[in-house]
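User: quick one
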Amino acid sequence: MNQTAMARSWVEHANGHRDFPLQNLPLGIFSPAGQTPRCGVAIGDAILDLEAVLALGLLEGEAKVAVEATRGGALNAFFALGRGPRVALRERLQALLGEHSAHQQALTSALHAVHACQMHLPAKVGDYTDFYVGIEHARNVGKLFRPDNPLLPNYKHVPIAYHGRASTLRPSGTPVRRPKGQTLPAGHSEPAFGPCARLDYELELGIWIGQGNEMGQAIAIGDAAEHVAGYCLLNDWSARDIQAWEYQPLGPFLSKSFITTLSPWVVTAEALAPFRSAQAPRPEGDPQPLPYLYDERDQAQGALDIELEVLLLTERMRDEGLPAHRLTLSNSRSMYFTVAQMVTHHSVNGCQLQPGDLFGSGTLSGAEPGSFGSLLEITEGGKQPVQLASGEVRTFLEDGDEIILRARCSREGAASIGFGECRGRIVAAN
Amino acid sequence: MNQTAMARSWVEHANGHRDFPLQNLPLGIFSPAGQTPRCGVAIGDAILDLEAVLALGLLEGEAKVAVEATRGGALNAFFALGRGPRVALRERLQALLGEHSAHQQALTSALHAVHACQMHLPAKVGDYTDFYVGIEHARNVGKLFRPDNPLLPNYKHVPIAYHGRASTLRPSGTPVRRPKGQTLPAGHSEPAFGPCARLDYELELGIWIGQGNEMGQAIAIGDAAEHVAGYCLLNDWSARDIQAWEYQPLGPFLSKSFITTLSPWVVTAEALAPFRSAQAPRPEGDPQPLPYLYDERDQAQGALDIELEVLLLTERMRDEGLPAHRLTLSNSRSMYFTVAQMVTHHSVNGCQLQPGDLFGSGTLSGAEPGSFGSLLEITEGGKQPVQLASGEVRTFLEDGDEIILRARCSREGAASIGFGECRGRIVAAN
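Assistant: Done. Structure below.
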């Protein structure tokens, strides 16, 4: 156990905090009541206002440059700075918030209680790309259509992805309006129009792009990790009935674009470093990645070991004070391609990535019941309702249902960290 | 023939100009040599600098507000103002540039020769959505895979679309770097990696969104036209070999995202008003649009009658001074859904549209040879090479080839207008 893993903060509620101990220090954009959005760092149940820390004269050099780049209520310019200033800021904040800090009294004035603040999206997203690298999800969904041959021939070669809608990305807590749309009712040949009847969640990891690339210049696999600023949780809400009718031949469109919810804290690449692991060896018979996607170091430490959880809180559970029902417990190690492979593949045609672009991983399911990352998988396409601890049943989500995503990273010798929550409650269609 | 249709400008080269007579007045963002980008209006072979017109004190009221909103090198805030200020500016500029203008001498100082200016994208695109409403293209492409049943069951009900990549939208004249990517060579079961060997163009209309909507609030079909600011030409460059291998199950991705080229002038909804026509009656047996997509006025005048043309200029043609070869002559009337239907459908699930969002129409082909809007159609998937007037042949595009899109609107009793060119020349892969 190294020094940093043991380090404690003078912010007492941060020590042993589920999500935000001194070892995490995720960045976000927040507003204290009635004030303009600014950048802060989560520490326990508080937010440290970085603008206030700067005003106290406690930052210099690259750490100061980093905070200056967070001005304007979005982290895009900060992401553009890349790793150096981000690490300098992290190290300085770990010292300032550490138990031996000489500035406790001054810094106390820069802390806000998280419950008194509003969180915003951390960056203005230029483009949002949703991948499909959760192989167990691809297999679970593929089985519904092709029981004997669930994965398409390209799956193990290409990090499959599609462009998503950036304008409807929203922070945790934003109500989820049930979408309307065209669907083809079972047994009919003519479509109907109305509220979605098969509303679903998808458990994903979000990846924030740091430094970008020029159009026409691919990012080599060995450099790809340098282009990732951090991570969040992402709920890729899906209208399954709309999706089934609209998606041929160009893919999902309105079935996904009504809202996508993000957890508001950017958990940095540095905070996640202790939870990296080797990419799971590809099973016998699987192809090796093509050379442009292969890097030895990436294979050795490019995977992420993050435990992921989905909870459902129904109106009845809220009314009766019952605990939320766990729908999913899975792990990001089910990603068949690493984040570096996703970055390199995305740019290999010359496509320009920009600071503040967002990737979704695709749904991160496991192979076993209990680990499925969507109701589509859990209910086998709506055929097997799920029994909730409250006595209720669900095939898809009902108005009033709230979905809560959580993440947790734990490893021997490291302080555990989390991501905070990604919540969204369904409200009735207009 | 009404007064406006006959009106002449004191800018002599504008009268009878192929694209930009007094009746057009498209807006764009340009830089005179070495100066910062600002908004201008095309008039003949010149650009009128609107910032200079403002400085001359020649604008007031809504027209002044409109020009003030163009500051900062992007038209997003201008688009957000909606129709009123746009029309006020148009009317004022038609008076100022008309042959009876009292301000000819002063305004001459605000004119720049177009060849001495650099054009930029007119707006910062938040989201770019590519539709598929050109029914003849859908049929021509469908025939390659399903000769007896080219259109999928949803086609005549749903305005099919997918999210495109905003970061690689570029103005006319930007070189087109041949993309690299994964492809599945014929007869192989393992993919290869290398430069695209089936590089293609797609002839599309671009649609600039004006005022947006709040997330969760659909735009009613009767209001949809009010949300459209203007139009451009769009070349949806496509790597057919990459597309064929990557697109299942989530649609096109890297095969399209390397670059999309736009003509830089925003031809306003007002300039196109004389060239509106009734939506072509749906053939016997086709379904009627669902009620949310049906509006009597839209059916009566929602279609656009724009003649569209694609020229190919090869290196040999340039070297030998030969004229460009016309690959396509088609018309925007082949759109099976109107632009209003596209806007309404896009927002019906609650998706937020924002000022400066861009739609592509999808490839606008006709049914007959000579009117096909892509080489995929012209060469029947690469099987029938096209013979060029220069003696060369092509199946797909070669390095050095330049594709030029043009448009023209003509009608008895109206001055003809055009869009300017949308050009792109292929350069070798990196």
